[in-house]
Amino acid sequence: MPCLCVEDGCGSETQSEVEDSRKSVTEQTDNSADGQTPPQQPSIFTLSKKEVLDPCWYCMMSLIREDLNLTQPLTQLGGEASSPPPGGKSPNYQTDPRPHFGIPNSSRSTPFPLWGSRGPRELRKGDEEEEEEEVCMSTERDLARMSLHTPSESVSSEEEQNGTLEESTESPDSSSGRHEQAADVSEWDESPASGWDLLPDVCLQHVLVWLGDRDRARASLVCRRWHRATRSPALWRSRHFHLTGRCSPGRCSEHDLAVGYARSLGAFLEELEVLVALPYRCRVTVARRLQLALRALFQGLCGSGARLRSLSVRNLQLQRDAWSRSTRNAIVHNLAHFLGHMATHLLHLSLGGSRMTLAQGLKVLKALARTQQHLNSSGGKGGGILSLDLEGFFAPSEPVHTHPPFSQLLGHFHRLEWLSLSYSCVSDELLEALGSSQQVKGRGCGSLKCLRLKCHNEEPHSQVVWEQAWASLVQRCPKLCVEFDVEGITNVDRLQRILLPRVPLVSFTMSECNFSEQDVNPKPIFRDILPHFWCQLQVLSVEIDNCYQSVDEELLELVMMCSQLDSLMLNAYLELSFVEQLLEYCQHTSCPIRSLDVKVCYLSEGESHEEVEEEKLRELLSYHSHFVHPALQLSVELYPIK
């Protein structure tokens, strides 16, 4: 059974056919009044078990699956659940008065068409009810509009004329009762106006910004003006999707919503974030479903002509066994094809956590670099990627620093200002390529301002990077700032080869470093390595397990030495005396620290010992709270270790 809605490009009946079918139903109703039993005509909502519903994409996305009593999935009802209407014509979303946000109706009331009836959401009524409602509406139109009508109370201009004519032909005796009832119904309308009906479109859009998708879909059914307000491009600039590959029965999946959003509202989209969360234990079919969803999402964005300025596809983790070989290759091919065709307006790109092989990662970067090279040769103003996040882009076992093609590809990004990489990608060739790519014509210095490096213990980090390479990069990019994130590395010699004195280090984070063994000493890190950056270090975050090695004295000397330190976060085995000396230092006007977060770990000897330590900390904070700088964000907590 074809869909009964009238939409450009929808393979359904025309308007004249729909009107002929309604006239035939009216004639059969008149025959039933004479004693004849007309045959039952199936509607779009009352279907027999043998009939198959073939709705268009708008009908399917605007109705509830349970209300239609559908036992088969949406993908079997005339193609994909989110496929656009066939017919060769693309629907005009700007003039379409019906909601098509790709969001199913959340109400569980009796389903009814959102169009083709008297009002956006109105059930068929009998003749007496229609006449009674027309009289009520004519009376309300004579009164001042004090509130916004619900969708069932909205009336078109044709109905207003018909209602006026019918009211004028009624006799006084037959219409007096109806007028009294109408007056009773509209008594609540005489209260002071709420202002929603007089709210300007600009203010209405600001209100709709704070609503969710379901509330916006309901607001679009209030009236035509509200529907136009919900179709404002400013409301659909940014979107976040969380894809897991799982499907819940009885409700529209996140994958269908993402694809429907891309096809219907992708033209308005500027910022897209896709977080892939593959379950820990999942079958190959789940990964395959997720790959198909990503392919449909990219195709929908290409078909709608999206002009993305920010794209984030994170946490693919293609090294997991749940991805088959063909599925991995399909995802890489789809991503490379999308970036090769849709990265013209892209300014920010994040592909962190993809965990691709070297060949797969180079294929994606080649497609992206080809677009950047075309923008540079064409001389387009404002074109080119500004920030690129490739942290965890390659698998942990890939020694990317030994492959020169990676450095050559990054040399095509001439407008880079922010770059995030794993330390396994860093080499002398990479630093040379980044420095040479910034020397474009008409620019005195490079544009690279921030280089963030993540050094993990499970990734290759034993390569030697010469200090002269860092000095050359800093000379070409004088505004360059380096942020280091070290995780799980306790070898002091390796850290000394990584943190060279010529590195413009402004942020250092050290996490998950276990120094519980007595032969591992963390003191040289704070005493010999980090003091080289005393004049530029701004953020220091230390999270270590040093139950056998005390670092209170070394940390305090380092903090007092750094003249630009703005944020300090410590999570280690410390003494309360260290906290007291640190608070005394924060009382001085020359202290640059404005954010202090200290988590003091200590070995607990019982509940009484814990109570004593908490009381000492309480007295310490109450005393120094009156002397520290008012702009200081202070947080000190105790963590007893049993």
* Fraction of residues in helix: 25-40%
Please list the strands of the largest sheet in the order they lie side by side: 1-2-3-4-5-6-7-8-9-10-11-12-13
Q: If helices are DSSP runs of H or I spanning 4 or more residues, what is the number of helices?
A: 20
Distance between the termini: 70 Å
The unreliable regions are 1-16, 37-89, 93-125, 139-193
Strand content: 5-15%
- Round the Cα radius of gyration to an integer and report it: 33 Å
**How many strands?**
13
Write down the overall geometry.
Answer: globular
In short:
The chain is of the alpha/beta class and 642 residues long.
What labels describe this entry?
alpha/beta, Monooxygenase, 13-stranded parallel β-sheet, 20 helices, 13% strand
Topology at a glance:
Blueprint: H1 15-33, H2 57-62, H3 127-142, H4 157-169, H5 172-185, H6 201-208, H7 213-219, H8 224-230, E1 238-243, H9 254-265, E2 271-276, H10 284-304, E3 310-314, H11 325-342, E4 348-350, H12 358-378, E5 387-389, H13 404-410, E6 418-422, H14 428-437, E7 450-456, H15 467-476, E8 481-487, H16 492-498, E9 505-514, H17 523-529, E10 539-545, H18 552-561, E11 567-573, H19 576-586, E12 595-603, H20 607-624, E13 633-641
Parallel strand pairs: 1-2, 2-3, 3-4, 4-5, 5-6, 6-7, 7-8, 8-9, 9-10, 10-11, 11-12, 12-13
Structural write-up:
There is one protein chain. The chain is α/β, with parallel strands linked by helices. Among the domains are: 176 residues, no CATH class; 38 residues, Up-down Bundle (Monooxygenase), CATH 1.20.1280.50; 151 residues. A 13-stranded parallel sheet has the order 1-2-3-4-5-6-7-8-9-10-11-12-13. Helix 18 links the parallel strand 10 and strand 11. Helix 9 packs parallel to helix 10 and helix 14 packs parallel to helix 15. The longest helix is centred in the middle third of the chain and has 21 residues. The protein is globular, with a radius of gyration of 33 Å. The N terminus is likely disordered.
